[in-house]
Amino acid sequence: MLEDMGDPSRLEGMARYGIRTDHAVGVTVTELRHLARGLRPDHELAAALWASGIHEARILASLVDEPARVSQAQMDAWVADLDSWDVCDGVCGNLFDRTPFALDKAVEWSTREPELEKRAAFALMACAAVHRRDLTDAAFGSLLPVIREQASDDRNYVKKAVSWALRQIGKRSAELNARAIRTAEQIERTDARSARWIARDALRELRSDAVQTRLKAR
């Protein structure tokens, strides 16, 4: 089905955005979301889609899987398979962040060596900060030392995700905003180029008038 929907002419554009296209067929995320809305949640189907190795099938797997049936072993297996940043972010934001293990896995993966596995840790923090209103500010506050400790990783996909996590946590509440700003200020004093970039990137948004106004209105 995905092969029939695919448009190979899209692959060049995907590659320009750093997306791996070795096993891609050229289906847009919008099309995948539309397809997923017509399917019932199906854990077995998700497993089969992931096992296919097709780029878009793996994104679709994250859209149709059942969070309540996702195990820690599945999360570890899927994160070890990651080969493109968009699949990483899709799996974290469509599925993994809705599991009971989300924050525990984020902390566990934060010290992984492979770039996309480590990115998954911070993408998972960021997505959970947006979606998981059932979790406490204290739970997200406990992630700030992890973010600070890993801010010296200069790899592009990691440092961008570290900033993303810090910014999203800091937008949950006024208290977390203040703590995230303090964390960013500590990171900024770290003698590492990536740390200074992360701090500047995060502080620009966390201190912005738009964010401060939104937090005061809550």
Brief digest:
It contains 15 helices and no strands. The protein is mainly α.
Verbal overview:
With 218 residues, this protein is mainly α. The protein has 2 domains: 1-65, no CATH class; 71-218, Serine Threonine Protein Phosphatase 5, Tetratricopeptide repeat (Alpha Horseshoe), CATH 1.25.40. It contains 15 helices and no strands. It has helices at 2-5, 11-16, 29-37, 43-51, 55-64, 72-81, 85-94, 102-109, 115-131, 137-141, 144-149, 156-169, 174-188, 193-206, 209-216. The protein is globular. The N and C termini lie far apart (45 Å).
Relevant terms:
mainly alpha
Principal-axis shape equals globular
Number of domains: 2
Q: Average pLDDT across residues?
A: 96
| Structural class based on helices, strands and sheet pairing | mainly alpha
Number of DSSP-assigned strands: 0
Tally of separate helices: 15
The main sheet comes to: none
Query: Could you name the ranges where pLDDT drops below 50 across 5 or more consecutive residues?
Result: none
Multimerization state: single chain
CATH topology of the largest domain: Serine Threonine Protein Phosphatase 5, Tetratricopeptide repeat
List the secondary-structure elements in sequence, H or E.
HHHHHHHHHHHHHHH
Radius of gyration: 18 Å
> Strand portion, in percent?
under 5%
Q: How widely separated are the two ends?
A: 45 Å
Question: What is the CATH C level class of the largest domain, in words?
Answer: Mainly Alpha
Helix content: 55-70%
**Any idea what the CATH architecture of the largest domain is?**
Alpha Horseshoe
